[in-house]
Amino acid sequence: MVLLLYRCARHIRRSSTWLLKGRPLSQYIRQFSSSDTQEQSDNHYDIVISGGGMVGFAMACSLGQSSRLSDRKILLLEGAPKKDWHLPEEFGNRVCALNRNTQDLFTKLGVWDAMTSMRVQPIRRMQVWEACSEAMICFEENPEEGCLAHIVENDVILEAIKSKIPDQVKVEYSSKVEGYSLPTNTSAMVEINLEGGRTVSADLLIGADGAKSLVRQAMGTQYLSWDYDQMGIVATLQLSEDTENTVAWQRFLPTGPVALLPLSHDRSSLVWSTTKEQAKSLLRLSEEDFTDALNRALWDESASDPVVQKIHERWMNLLNTVAPGQGSDYRQLPPGIGGIVSNSRGAFPLGLGHAVHYVRPRVVLIGDAAHRVHPLAGQGVNLGFGDVSCLLTTLENSVLNGSDIGDERELYRYESQRQKHNIATMASIDGLYRLYATKALPFVLARSLGLSTVNAIPFVKNFFMRHAEG
């Protein structure tokens, strides 16, 4: 009998929590006991996303389309003004390589079809090689799984996401945040102080406000970061001749990697990571001289080390003896660059950053607010979209279980899952950067032999691909 009464009481408690939409009863008592109930209600939201951009808008879109969160008030605060946008004739110089998991997320949201109706270019092959030896690694698309990735302009991604945000999500443009008042536990709400004196409150604040996140600073969480003393140069390239152009190319130079990402039959996007000093020199060059410098970076063999070349050749012969036919990917020649699109050159500093914690009561970080990586692997924005998918699942499960949507115990599930993937990815990218940043002969030899060995072992190569998609 005691056990039966206990089970009944537990069922009633969980049912009442569900009726309160996962909020504690004390919150409702506070809300309805005030004489300013209507004003408080108008300025209170279940979820506030601070920061737009691709990841912030993707979070708003995901939450707004969730059937389990359909009764929640959601606000997105975007600091930039609202602008009319039309697909330009020329490609933008900022692009992303979207992996399969990101494609799955966007397909679920209806965003993928919106993007493909504008501009999307598949990557069917990736070829990575280095300037100091003949070592290379290639990845080919699997006919059963589809393309390795897709190259899409940032503006196209953003506009496609915006077009699928449901009406229940309120988006406030030109919203400047002056500060945050964060609770120490779930008994109080988050308060966001906006420019002009307005204050809004929330059950949950999602920080999507970039690498210099004010939300992260308000949380007081430790942020580990360092500067790579490098700049990333971007530009839109005109190829020398029309091609199918579905190959992504990346060559590791002593000063950093240079990558060509396909956009169309005669356009590619450049991401050239190099020292700050060289970046400044390259940006000062005329478009013709810059084009010549880029072609040299792709084709010049002066950095090749004869000792490494000889040892590498012997190693490849050994691999072919032990595993005949493995690692024998054909080497394609990169396309010639005919020129760059006028005024498409730009540059940005490179660095790494990671928040020790993504979560505190009623606050959670996503995207660059939580982590920042070197672009050499093209994983930065995919990590952010992975955060979106994971946090959505966490919040939906929280509501289903009758938990408070801002309960840090539930949010820690998100933090634990994402940090396992993000930290491993960031460590790999940082290690790869440092490995290729040195000219020391032992390291050059080790990375050359290692790269060719991985290329010769299919299951190892597939492991790296699967992790990149996570």
Task: Outline the fold blueprint.
Layout: H1 2-19, H2 25-33, H3 37-42, E1 44-50, H4 53-65, E2 74-77, E3 95-98, H5 100-109, H6 111-116, E4 121-123, E5 125-130, E6 136-140, E7 149-153, H7 154-162, E8 169-172, E9 177-181, E10 190-194, E11 199-207, H8 214-219, E12 223-239, E13 247-253, E14 256-262, E15 267-275, H9 276-284, H10 287-299, H11 306-322, E16 337-340, E17 346-355, E18 359-360, E19 363-365, E20 371-372, H12 380-400, H13 408-437, H14 441-456, H15 458-469
Parallel strand pairs: 1-2, 1-11, 2-8, 5-13, 11-19
Antiparallel strand pairs: 3-7, 4-7, 5-6, 9-10, 10-11, 12-15, 12-16, 12-17, 13-14, 14-15, 17-20, 18-19
Helix pairs in contact: 4-7, 4-12, 11-14, 12-13
Structural descriptors:
FAD/NAD(P)-binding domain, nine-stranded mixed beta sheet, single chain, disordered N terminus, 15 helices, alpha+beta, 20 strands, 470 residues
Short note summarizing the structure:
By secondary structure, this protein is α+β, with helices and mostly antiparallel strands.
